[in-house]
Design brief:
Length: 251
């Protein structure tokens, strides 16, 4: 999928879960959403001209989606640090030092689109963020943890979204050959947005509901709506993956 698809679908999904908590924890909620925006694009740091290298995500259109570009000032910094200080060194380290029977190599939808890549990327991002935030006197350990949680959630959703495309994702790369792929084709040349727009509409309605309803039903604990958002998000992705994208596991 293209960067704009990853950004809107991932942030929309995370918002469905965390926005009910906004009135109680506004700063924490925004930190998670910003983390999910960065994470939604970061796996494509293995691609030469990915959206994560640009301070603006093209093609979002007008309206609420444009607000997502407010976070885009962070994208190039995370993109280039991930590419040159995490991705390339990690690939070299695993290939030359760790693995004898498996070769990772540098390729799109390889290492950064796998369980191993997500884990490595998140841990090393924390290692880099800690001293930088401390030096800038911006260190907030809870906030950093929430940012990384959103970051990892956005990255995982990126892989889920790519699993809906015909190329698919080899989640356990490089250890196993199986991949998950679907029937959606989305490229810069040939772009059919019917499915993504439909899903975004449903997400938008869900986000609005989980944000507004808690303010009208104050006797119900807010976290209940957050859990409901999580359940709804999982169900929506299952329905989309199974019945719309027709995802399946292949060797």
């Amino acid at each position: 999928m293209l960067g704009r698809h990853h950004l809107t679908l991932s942030v929309g999904t995370v918002a469905l879960i965390v926005l009910p908590l906004f009135t109680l924890f506004p700063n924490e909620t925004l930190v998670v959403l910003v983390g999910s925006a960065v994470g939604s694009l970061i796996p494509d740091a293995d691609s030469p001209d990915a959206a994560i290298f640009h301070s603006e995500v093209r093609g979002l259109g007008d309206g609420i989606a444009d607000l997502l570009n407010a976070t885009a000032i962070l994208f190039p910094a995370f993109g280039y640090v991930t590419k040159y200080l995490i991705y390339k060194p990690a690939v070299w380290f695993y290939d030359e030092i760790v693995f004898d029977e498996h070769e990772i190599g540098e390729r799109h939808r390889g290492f950064l689109h796998s369980f191993l890549g997500l884990g490595t990327m998140t841990v090393l991002s924390a290692v880099y963020l800690l001293p930088i935030l401390y030096f800038l006197e911006l260190l907030w350990l809870v906030g950093m943890g929430l940012f990384l949680a959103g970051y990892l959630a956005g990255a995982i959703l990126h892989l889920v979204e790519d699993s809906c495309t015909k190329t698919g994702i080899q989640w356990n790369y490089p250890f196993q050959d199986w991949k998950v792929n679907g029937q959606i084709t989305t490229t810069a040349r040939s772009e059919d947005m019917r499915y993504q727009n439909g899903f975004l509409t449903v997400l938008g309605v869900g986000v609005a509901a989980t944000f507004l309803v808690p303010t009208m039903v104050s006797q119900v604990p807010t976290f209940v709506f957050s859990i409901a958002g999580l359940v709804l998000a999982v169900l929506l992705w299952i329905v989309f993956g199974k019945f719309v994208a027709k995802c399946a596991v292949s060797a």
